[in-house]
Amino acid sequence: MEFRPILSSLLRNRTGPLLVAVQVALSLAILANALHIVSVRQAVVSRPSGVERESDIFHVRVADLRGGGTFNEVLAGQKRQLELLRAVPGVESVAQTNQVPLSQSGNNTGLAADRRQVRPTTGASFYVSPDSLVRTWGLKLVEGRDFLPTEVLDIDTKTSTEQARIAIVTLPLARKLWPDASSYVGKTFYFGTGDTAEPARVTGVVERLQSTSAELGERGEMSLIMPMRRVNEPRAMYTLRTEPGQRERVIKEVEETLRKDANNHVMIRPKTFDADRKDRYRADRGLAWMLVTVSVLLMLVTASGIVGMASLWVTQRRKQIGVRRALGARRIDILRYFILENVMITSAGVAAGLLGALALNHLLVSTLELARLPAGYLVGGAAIFLALGIAAVYGPAWRAASISPATATRGVV
Question: Measuring CA to CA, which residue among 196, 212, 224 is closest to residue 122?
């Protein structure tokens, strides 16, 4: 089978092949970038938070409907609630906290390595707890130590602006503050800049703890923990780790325990870590599914176009097919002719589509800061459309090869 006769035939009737090639090119350009975006979104959704065994973690917000009290009364109530939660069967660890990762709501602060800086080095999520978040969340300490019970401050934020002078920071935050350092324990950073900036000393470094918003890039890894309990209102948040498979039961028992303790004068809002992750990445998942749907539709439309065009060509060439069969052409020869013809058209579309995919990716990189398109998506996309072209044309080509000479030339003047 020579390429020249097929190419000559395509050049004489170029409109149909050109439309198919353009369709393949556009579909490939969009498909490669769409699948790349889906992969990037999936990687974002699957990013580790730093919290171990997320499926066993939940938090509960507790608001006392009886109103406030003195500092000592509120403090005593929160300590009592902690002890009650620790006594619930199936609870491995409990910690009071002001916020949780991926919750999309919480405190952030600006940090600087030197108070003489004009502006902060970076922002960070600001976690405070009188208990061990390292133990409760299963954070991985890579340097230094956890807080000691004697280092915890109970602060009445209505009358005091005092805060702890020590902190545990994430490894990405430490590297951001001191990019040239090999060790971070003992280093001092500042909340803000200028003479009023308050210092804090690093006592420990954890490998990872995502921020409350879990932003993309390094910003989502910037977090610190301080040993403090802020007592300012008759409400508190507790984060709990349960034994594997016990979370749902423990949530119910926790609610019952807290309601009984407050004689039902309490508002309780439990939420699992999984639910926070699902809410945080809802838009990313929605975008991924939309792009997958678009990609599938593009492939179906392209395949339909190839089938329709090939069927039209078979109808138009019935006489030519019959003559060739009468001259001794076998079914395999007719089948091979149509498949090779379609491969040539699809290959031209794939070549143009690869250039289009690169151009579209360059636009996305420059405007949306998307990662560059890996070569694997180009190769994979090209293979998909070449295979799709062969599969789509096979049916019409087989029908053409099945035409007998007598049937094909019947009624031809």
Answer: 224
197-254 residue pLDDT tens = 999 999 999 999 999 998 887 889 999 999 999 887 668 999 999 999 999 999 999 9
CB 223 within 8 A of CB 170: yes
Q: Answer whether 213's CB lies under 8 Å from 37's CB.
A: no
Fill in the DSSP letter of residue 101: T
- Angle subtended by helix axes 331-368 and 282-316, to nearest 10: 150
pLDDT tens digit string along 335-380? Answer: 777 788 878 888 888 999 999 999 988 888 888 767 788 888 889 8
Residue 228: closest CA among 160, 305, 288? 160
Contact 363, 308 (CB under 8 A): no
* 303 close to 392: Cβ distance less than 8 angstroms: yes
β 141-144/108-112 pair status: unpaired
Q: What residue has token string 């300590």? A: 79
**Alpha carbons 294 and 288: distance in angstroms, whole number:** 10
**59 has which bridge partners?**
239, 271
What whole-number distance in Å separates Cα of residue 347 and Cα of residue 3?
13
Read off the pTM.
0.79
Total length of the chain: 413
